[in-house]
Automatic annotation (TrEMBL):
<dbReference type="GO" id="GO:0005777">
    <property type="term" value="C:peroxisome"/>
</dbReference>
<dbReference type="GO" id="GO:0018812">
    <property type="term" value="F:3-hydroxyacyl-CoA dehydratase activity"/>
</dbReference>
<dbReference type="Pfam" id="PF22622">
    <property type="entry name" value="MFE-2_hydrat-2_N"/>
</dbReference>
<feature type="domain" description="Ketoreductase">
    <location>
        <begin position="10"/>
        <end position="180"/>
    </location>
</feature>
<dbReference type="InterPro" id="IPR002539">
    <property type="entry name" value="MaoC-like_dom"/>
</dbReference>
<dbReference type="InterPro" id="IPR020904">
    <property type="entry name" value="Sc_DH/Rdtase_CS"/>
</dbReference>
<keyword id="KW-0560">Oxidoreductase</keyword>
<keyword id="KW-0276">Fatty acid metabolism</keyword>
<dbReference type="InterPro" id="IPR057326">
    <property type="entry name" value="KR_dom"/>
</dbReference>
<dbReference type="Pfam" id="PF01575">
    <property type="entry name" value="MaoC_dehydratas"/>
</dbReference>
<comment type="similarity">
    <text>Belongs to the short-chain dehydrogenases/reductases (SDR) family.</text>
</comment>
<dbReference type="Pfam" id="PF02036">
    <property type="entry name" value="SCP2"/>
</dbReference>
<comment type="subunit">
    <text>Homodimer.</text>
</comment>
<keyword id="KW-0007">Acetylation</keyword>
<comment type="pathway">
    <text>Lipid metabolism; fatty acid beta-oxidation.</text>
</comment>
<dbReference type="GO" id="GO:0016616">
    <property type="term" value="F:oxidoreductase activity, acting on the CH-OH group of donors, NAD or NADP as acceptor"/>
</dbReference>
<dbReference type="InterPro" id="IPR003033">
    <property type="entry name" value="SCP2_sterol-bd_dom"/>
</dbReference>
Amino acid sequence: MASTLRFNGRVVLVTGAGGGLGRAYALAFAERGASVVDSVEEGEKIVKTALDAFGRIDIVINNAGILRDRSFSRISDEDWDKIQRVHLRGSFLVTRAAWDHMKKQKFGRIIMTSSASGIYGNFGQANYCAAKLGLLGLSNCLAVEGKKNNIHCNTIAPTAGSRMTQSILPEDLVEALKPDYVAPLVLWLCHESCEENGGLFEVGAGWIGKLRWERSLGALVRQRTQPMTPEAVKANWTKICDFDNATKPKSIQESIGSIVEALNKINSGGEVSANPTSRATSATTSEFARAIGHKFPPLYSSYAELDTIMYALGVGASIKEPKDMKFIYEGSSDFSCLPTFGVILAQKSIMNGGLAEIPGLSINLAKILHGEQYLELYKPIPRAGKLRCEAIVADILDKGSGLVILVDVYTYSGEELICYNQFSIFVVGSGGSGGKRTSDKAKAAVAIPNRPPDAVLTDTTSLNQAALYRLSGDWNPLHIDPNFASLAGFDKPILHGLCTFGFSARHVLQQFADNDVSRFKAIKVRFAKPVYPGQTLQTEMWKEGNRIHFQTKVQETGGIVISNAYVDLVPASAISAKTPSEGAGLQSTLVFEEIGRRLQGIGEEVVKKVRAVFEWHITKGENTAAKWTIDLKTGSGKVYQGPAKGSADVTITLSDEDFMEVVLGKLDPQKGSPLCSVVLQVPVRPPLFGDMSPGLGNGEPERTLGQSLQGLTSLFLQSSLFIGTRNKGLRAYSQQNTYKARI
């Protein structure tokens, strides 16, 4: 014997409880322990009565109704308005009055009363039918909005004898359709143990049935290169109305997903696949085998420094943090691309409809979630370039509630592997076919240590964060359009998961690697919850050797948005060991070492005259092979390998070959094609070179810089470096400016 469903401690409001259905509901709830407040009219005010008497409101049964039947042409404005006011507006007002109280107590059950007339239509009841189907729409919306607060809303379409039906049904049928045969369904739907939400039920005479929507497979009636015409609709009409292989959408997300799939088919010249929802759900192991190993078309992608800067700004890099300048200013001596930019390059290869083309699967794009992400770098990402991405389906897992598709993406520069990504894509509702649940190909997430974090960093995202991040290539309107976000079940547009991913990785890189991108090896995250722009991200980090475990929370709510995550770093000692060899094989290394020796003994005199720090980038091919700094600003001056310890006043980029040609006097820097790139930072009023010969100024920075390069090269490249007097340099009077020139 099943246990009795009780409502002790619950407060129930029933509208239209003077007789019939409403009275049956009120008596049934009271018999099972509920406190019942009923109302024939003025339902909105009775909510206050319930709160005053019992301090809460748990269940609302919107039952009140009247009839004003007329054929359509005879319906008066008064008849129309009164029906809408009692049925639709009345239910709205009562429910709204109770809504916030239900949200606060994290519990609520609501019943809307529709009708078969509203569902199917009935002669002479246009006003009544419109109101009753309107209640179904209201109920569906409340089911979506209330779900997160444990508020369930369902709709019934009862057929029962009542005062409204006594005049249109035979007496014996009215007796057979007792309200008592409807009440048990209402009580079950309102019980705390019932998980039904957003359902529609016909009920009467002891029979109950659930209704759902069904949609035909439909047909594509346009092609990418041709207009859509009425003739094309006519030609496909039979197919449009054919319910073989029909789908049964349950949400607006599923509806939109099918439209998106159709759009992808139009763009690719394909056909709509049969029943995508059921096919994905019933995919067999053999179908998985067809999908595993599927290769996406290679994607070639060019990017410039602007793109890497835009990405850095999109994940929170800012001029407020001086160490971030290397990611957002191309003139920085150590300008670098954030390691997580690697996901942007890879993501494009699977975003352009590629998932819909996986053989053996037909994926509803509206049911896709980004579950986890892994990124591994084999060398720092170039500041600009053209790369090739090759993606492949590595494996498919059946988690019961959905499928997990593992997509591996390899990114190359020429034939050199730059980075590797693994996207874990969860397809909701597509599991249950008995496939394997685990894979040795999956990059596993790792639980965080069971102790307080070693470090915590926070960043408040901008209200424009999603709008800025999407400029890096993820154009999903979910992150910018409030209406689209609402359709997806969110209060407002959400932040991209990979944007939060970028914030978190930047925190780890800043805290434990001093923003040295060469130390970044790999990152793995699991996405847990969405973030809204304007919220504060809090990254909690634990160091265990060269692995930094972390999780990211929304500070305002405490909710974890990234879990079971880690970053693997290259040991600092490994980076240091590489540094001495960076200049190996370069002729310029000998010159800089000689400059350092000659500086001894005359350094203080030179520092007084020059007062500037020079950073040299020596290139081999198209890559920087070595960096040298000549500090003529502090103490007695010094020369050392590596970037400036602080900011450089002048940065010069020059190939090793041209450097030596100038040193040996074989190449005149004032003649021929451009030799080098020179960037000057002028932060203070005093001239960079004291009273040395005139140069930069008077609004003509690039021309005068070119005229004075020989003095610059003489100053640092000639063997009589610090004692020559001819063509001695530059003068700069501008404040807070950067001058650039190619010489």
